Amino acid sequence: MARSRKVPQSLIRLPARDERGHVTVVVETPRGSHSKYKFDPGCNALRLGAVLAEGLSFPYDFGFVPSTLGEDGDPLDVLLLLDHAVPPGCVVTARLIGVLEVRRRTGRDKWRRNDRFFAVATHAPAHRHLQTLSDLGRRTIEEVESFFVHYAGFNGKTLEVLARRGPRRAERLLKKGAALFERRA
């Protein structure tokens, strides 16, 4: 006899962690994409969010951790390291290796935190050795930072990188995002 399970009505409400404590990531935009997709809980589907400027593409799969909220009111953003890109809407199990603490604003609006978490998919043998953000190498991190600064600029926003932090800080910020989601749910 099959067990009855409570099924979330939306990808936004999936558990942030699985039964082993791994982080759940919902991929919105695959690596190499020239378009930005964003999950729209109103229609429970992905929506085209932006078309990137000529020459820009996402350096890694990009998505969010469900059942979390950031200061910007959206789920926490994640760059997901995998061996190959996966399609939008794919749910992936991962582990955190760090976070870029960033702030962003539009025009003269107030600054808001909009951190970018880094996670390695548990199904990614080529990236298994990565334990911290620094394992990616300085140049790779600088390229990712540059991507987000330019992407924001082309969309009328300003983005500043405040700090590069490791997995322990990422875990603390994830817990804070999960607590904020629970308070607003």
Provide a descriptive summary of the structure in words.
This protein has helices at 138-154, 167-184; strands at residues 23-29, 35-40, 45-51, 61-65, 76-81, 91-106, 112-113, 116-121, 157-165. It is of the alpha+beta class. Strands 1-4-5-8-6 form a 5-stranded mixed beta barrel. Strands 2-3 form a two-stranded antiparallel sheet. The protein is globular. The termini are far apart.
CATH-derived architecture = Alpha-Beta Complex
Please tally the β strands and state the result: 9
The arrangement of helices and strands along the chain is EEEEEEEEHEH
User: Helical amount among residues, as a percent range?
Assistant: 10-25%
CATH class categorisation: Alpha Beta
Radius of gyration: 16 Å
Question: Segments where pLDDT lies below 50 for 5+ residues?
Answer: none
Structural class: alpha+beta
- Distance between the terminal alpha carbons, to the nearest Å? 32 Å
Instruction: State the domain count.
Output: 1
| Tertiary shape | globular
Average pLDDT number:
93
The total of helices stands at: 2
Main sheet: strand order: 1-4-5-8-6
Main sheet properties: 5 strands, mixed, barrel
CATH homology superfamily name? Inorganic pyrophosphatase
Proportion of β residues?
25-35%
The name CATH uses for the topology is: Inorganic Pyrophosphatase
Summarize this structure briefly:
The protein has 185 residues and is of the alpha+beta class. It has two helices and nine strands; from the N terminus they run ββββββββαβα.
